[in-house]
Amino acid sequence: MWHPLLRRHIMNVDKLREELEIDEGVRYHVYLDHLGYPTFGIGHLVIEGDPEYPGEEGEPVSPDRVVEAFESDLETVLSDCNKLYSDFDDLPEDAQHIIANMMFNMGLPRLSQFKGMKRGVDARDWNAAADEMVDSRWYNQVTNRAQRLVDRMRAI
């Protein structure tokens, strides 16, 4: 949604959450992710300081805690998106969602390595950005998710 007074896009965070729930799933117990790390909720990695730490597999997690962890993770993700793209709030909303989805999945250190994608986004060349997304290990690791995001990038 474009906010005329702020001259920037206001991201629909509820829509982003729905997208991430599809891509990450939502689990109300601790499970081991594909790398064997304790995780719960919407892809929240259990870290020291979390009440769930060290994260015993099967440990139940309340819906309120899932929301709390997601909101904290999302705050970090959006902050990192703004670090990587100084004009993040000026990008089309779908580009914001795609970048935030990738940031949620990979984190800043890995997404910042997508230099060709960043050049494409900075130039508003969505096909070039999508081409660079395809040309990555990430694309082969999460192919279904990645293909959905690539298709959306090309459609901007």
Profile the largest sheet: 3 strands, antiparallel
Residue windows where pLDDT falls under 50 for at least 5 positions: 1-7
Helix count, per DSSP?
Answer: 8
Order of helices and strands: EEHEEEHHHHHHH
Distance between the termini: 14 Å
Global Rg: 16 Å
Strand order of the largest sheet: 3-4-5
What percent of the residues sit in helical stretches (DSSP H or I)? 55-70%
The backbone outline, from C-alpha atoms, is: globular
Beta strand %: 5-15%
Mean pLDDT: 93
The assigned structural class equals: mainly alpha
- The number of distinct β-strands equals 5
Describe the structure.
- The protein is mostly helical.
- The chain has helices at 13-24, 63-84, 93-106, 108-111, 115-122, 126-134, 137-141, 143-155, and strands at residues 2-3, 8-9, 27-32, 38-41, 44-45.
- It has a three-stranded antiparallel sheet. The chain has a two-stranded antiparallel ribbon with strand order 1-2.
- Helix 1 (13-24) packs across helix 3, helix 5 (115-122) packs antiparallel against helix 6 (126-134) and helix 6 packs antiparallel against helix 8.
- The chain is globular, with a radius of gyration of 16 Å.
- The model is unreliable at 1-7 (pLDDT under 50).
